[in-house]
Amino acid sequence: MTVQPQKLPDGLIVMFEGLDGVGKSTQLKLAAAELAKAGWPVETTRNLGGTPIGEALREAMLSKLARPAATDFYISIAIQEALIEELDSLRAQGKIVLIDRGPLSLAAYQIYGSGFDEATGWRAVDDGMQSIRPELVIGYKGNVDTAIKRAHQASAEPDYFESKPAAFFKRVQHGYDLASDRYPVRVLDAEQSIEAVHTATMELVYGAIDSKLRYS
Question: Which of 100, 120, 166, 199 could form a disulfide with 46 if both were Cys (CB 3.0 to 4.6 A apart)?
Fold first, then answer.
């Protein structure tokens, strides 16, 4: 049973990972609302963005300008580095931080989706995970074709990545699968109802909170 809401020693970081359209952003918003209603000090952010410079770089990255995979990779790294400083500040305040995507998206989208160099890419993923130190990483996995359809329905005009063919997203999902084998990712079945996925999500989040309080 989760204890009375309070600040957490060194904060708590939860990453929400998965394809566009799989439902991760919806689950993050639901989790944030439940935690806030219960009185927990919660903040939300996103790895492609999250800071003023990060949001500016996000616009460039999502534009449809042609470029090599290395360009997207290094823009992602720049966004992430700015966010890490912000996360350190939120940790110091004892906040629960819910992040829409983290370093694992580098592996999924840049290495396997776009074909960036594996050795360089995985080193950056490792560095990012070590810097952010998430207590919980939740991976949402569902049918790739369904996720693509939902992503397109949610966007008035598909961005650079949403415009990619289905084969790209199948490679991205393969990247997430490999990342889930490499790191302690708690994978949830996104094909369940929104309510069922939310319940499963909160069980993991509250478990991470309890563990943090117990061992701090």
Answer: 100
